[in-house]
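Hi all, long-time lurker, first post. I run a small reading group and we've been trying to get comfortable going from sequence to structure in the token notation. Rather than ask abstract questions, I figured I'd post a concrete chain and ask someone more experienced to write out its structure so we can walk through it together at our next meeting. Sequence below, copied exactly:
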Amino acid sequence: CSDDGNLAEDAGTSDVYSLASKPIICKQYLEVEWEVRKATQRSFGKDVMKGSSPRVPQQDNFSDCGVYILQYVESFFEDPIPSFHLPMNLSEWFPQQRMKTKRQEIKELILKIKDQQEQDKKESDQVDAPPGSPEEPEIEETRGSNLSISP
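-- Answer (accepted) --
Happy to help. Here is the structure in token form:
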């Protein structure tokens, strides 16, 4: 769809225009949802809805977008934006220096959670085991090829 909601012309759609006497209107998702839920028509085009691109700390490479998104979310929860009035300038939302250690912080957090889950599982297994029975049977090696397993 083009900006005005009409089907954009390209090599694949020229036949569509020759077959139809009026232009095909592409309904955007919000318009369809509104129509389904409210049973009325409403336009959600750029002439009706104002948009903004707040200034936020920006990545300077092509590999940190996910890390930046995580930092935006963390910063929002640490210090929620008090007002969404435009224009918004969040360029000082968090120090750029913070991003240099973010991957290491995430790694340490994941390892801490992993260790905690392993500890919780061990404690859970000990509680679930019947009294007097070991967690795993002991395997004793004897002379020759016979192995004996004792409880």
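A couple of things your group might point at:
Residues 56 and 93 are 7 Å apart (CA to CA).
The chain is about 40% helix and 5% strand.
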